[in-house]
TrEMBL record:
Native source species: Streptomyces prunicolor
Protein name listed in UniProt: Lipoprotein
Keyword Signal assigned: yes
Organism domain of life: Bacteria
Signal peptide segment: 1-20
Keywords, sorted A to Z: Signal
């Protein structure tokens, strides 16, 4: 499953895609003929969960630091580095990893330290299965022109989540005071295997109300989605205001609020 790496070259020869082939004699998180560099201060997506929809490519910013020997030639002709995210116990040998398309852009902070930034692109149509909605790990990659390289893992956790959507529709509009209002809706989330959105079943969702002129919602009741992700409940009409559904999220799917639907009470 799903190694993807850049084919962009440095001086026509140096490519991060060399990391896509696990070394035959890998030990721990480093490969044979290991490059003597160390990655640190890796921050993926500013520390926030990465939320991926059904089809759209997601650009994930990464910053990191590389510490190297003062004698190492880190010019673009000889050295390239980049971040990755992966699942599994070993960054070098796992095949479930996504590598930055291009080498990182680095600035020398000293004779031995580079401060770098790069972008990892996640393409749900080719990179993800539904089971990949989990906590991934961050890693770093480095290579020199002579093929010496290093893969370093365990550089932080990266939650990857399936984008959620939620709707709400309150009827009738307008409605007489004391009459019944029916609020329907649907909770869905990205399916990375069909590249469509599918209902999220048996999930607790709050029905909330915001009185006209107020700034906050209050919870009226909690109901569960159906087997197809649909929602339906009733309340009595009291005053003008907005009804919405609110989902708190799960370990695989982020929280989401529906847009409030206004009801005019006569």
């Amino acid at each position: 499953m799903r190694i993807r790496a850049t084919v962009a070259a440095v001086s026509g020869a140096l490519v991060l895609s060399a990391f896509a082939v696990p070394a035959a004699q890998a030990v721990g998180n480093t490969a044979a003929a290991t490059l003597n560099v160390t990655f640190s201060k890796v921050k993926v997506n500013s520390g926030k969960a990465v939320v991926v929809g059904a089809t759209a490519k997601v650009a994930v910013p990464v910053t990191y630091t590389v510490t190297h020997a003062a004698s190492l030639d880190v010019s673009a002709d000889n050295f390239a580095s980049g971040p990755l995210i992966y699942r599994g116990t070993d960054a070098a040998s796992t095949t479930t990893k996504i590598i930055s398309d291009d080498p990182g852009t680095c600035t020398a902070a000293s004779t031995t330290v580079l401060n770098c930034k790069a972008t990892i692109y996640i393409r749900p149509t080719s990179d993800l299965l539904n089971t990949d909605a989990a906590t991934w790990k961050a890693g770093g990659l480095a290579i020199t022109a002579d093929g010496t390289k290093k893969t370093q893992g365990d550089l932080g956790n990266v939650p990857v989540r399936r984008l959620s959507k939620l709707t709400a529709d309150a009827t009738p509009e307008p409605v007489k005071k004391g009459k019944t209002i029916t609020v329907t809706g649907k909770l869905s989330r990205a399916n990375w295997e069909t590249n469509k959105y599918a209902g999220y079943s048996t999930q607790p969702v709050k029905l909330q109300f915001r009185k006209k002129g107020a700034s906050t919602y209050t919870t009226v009741k909690t109901i569960k989605t159906s087997s197809t992700g649909t929602l339906k409940t009733t309340v009595k009409a009291t005053v003008d205001g907005y009804f919405r559904y609110s989902f708190a999220g799960t370990s695989t799917t982020p929280a989401v609020n529906a847009t409030g639907d206004y009801v005019d009470v006569k």
